[in-house]
Amino acid sequence: MKKLNYPFTQEAIRELKVGDMVLISGKMFTGRDAVHKYLHDGNKPPVDLKNQMIYHCGPVMLQDPKTKKYKVVAAGPTTSIREEPYQWEVMRDYGIVGVIGKGGMGQKTLDGCKKYGCVYFHAIGGAAQVLAERITSVDNVYLMELGSPEAMWELQVVDFPCVVTMDSHGGSLHAEVLEKSKGKFAELIK
Amino acid sequence: MDNTPDQSLVESLLELIRVTSSTLPADVKKVIKEAHAREKEGTNAKYAMQIINENIALAEKNSGPICQDTGTIIFNVYHPPGFNQGKFSLAAKQAVMNATSKGYLRQNSVDSLTGKNSGNNVGPGHPSLHFHEHEGNSLEVRLMLKGGGCENMGAQYSLPHTELSADRDIVGVRKVILDAVVKAQGKGCGPGILGVAIGGDRGDGYIESKVQLLRKLDDKNPNPVLDELEKDIVVASNKLAIGPMGFGGETTLLGCKIGVLNRLPASYFVSVSYMCWAFRRQGVVLNGASKISKWLY
Lengths: 190, 297
Known about the structure:
The complex is a heterodimer.
Chain A: E1 2-5, H1 10-14, E2 21-30, H2 33-40, E3 53-55, E4 60-63, E5 70-74, H3 84-94, E6 98-101, H4 107-116, E7 119-122, H5 128-133, E8 135-142, E9 152-166, H6 173-188
Parallel strand pairs in A: 1-2, 2-3, 3-6, 6-7
Antiparallel strand pairs in A: 2-9, 4-5, 7-9, 8-9
Chain B: H1 7-22, H2 26-38, H3 44-62, E1 72-79, H4 85-101, E2 128-133, E3 139-146, H5 148-151, E4 155-158, H6 170-184, E5 192-198, H7 202-212, H8 224-239, E6 253-260, E7 269-275, E8 280-286, E9 292-295
């Protein structure tokens, strides 16, 4: 088990390889479909994303009616492939070093990871309670006009568990598993 | 029509939603434990199954959503003749709104044209209500919360399928079901469970595929051909070695349930619904006072 702590650096990211099980501690920003579309449309991000991580997540949040503070009720990853058309641009234009999500991403993103120094961390899909427990505070929220699940939430995490499935050297576990399963499928339907 | 929902029914449905969102049924928990035991030590797959098991226990303890995508809220209601569906729908909508404000459900209902979130999970088509009249006096409500990630992995095939050389027979059906599993990879939060319908029109096929998911995982299909196919699909899918989360590994599918409908001579559809490991389904029998008298799973 490896540990990755904030502030994140290109050097630390380049050391990670496909299959590494990593515990991430520090800051991350949620961003899913609407945020990526918003950036792709030419809007500037509401925060500086240089050396930051984007988490593909639409959390369940509850706001305390008195203090107005938010509490995370559930916060697992959402399917990443929907951001495939946009993700590499966010790497290029804003310098993110990590993308956290589920299901993996495609060639454009893999090329972006290599070129701009970024890693795809696969969180465990559906594990909303385990992952919410590792989120120690909700520090801010941006773009709330996109709706709560689509807003950009600034989170503090401790020991957030992930597996590196796409690294910054061109390696993709998703591509490997897909190829093998296709080969097996061809045998099974013969 | 009287527009005040029956409060006792609202309370019972709220409890059904709370339990469905936070607690997996026993048959699902059992196969997930078995899948965890099957994975090899030190692998990404074992790690995924370990976190999945921790998450199941934690959600139950916290009474919180197992997954933040609390999904399409699908009610299947089995009622006696003369039942007032309108009154039930009113109570179901109220229960869904209450469950959303309590955090059992995420704000998950979006206007498809404007992108605006209704904020309370109610809107055209939401929640999804299906009524079935049955004999006898009992009222049974079965609820399934089906997340978007797995719903997006559903597939409908029209046979014959040229690329797969899948003909209009059981061998062809097997080919397209396995193709759906290969295409899903880990994107539907596997290990998954398939609900399949052979036949019907496009709409009925998908509905029947979801009704199949209401069956208990350890039941036996009364049709021997389908029973054999269900078992074969699970064994063959696991040979694909897609594994938990698509990390590679021993378990790709936890179960498969197949139903059959008649078709037109011109059509032969196979409709596949993929359900994630966080298979949230529960059901209750309600008594005359709309109180829960029995849990069904």
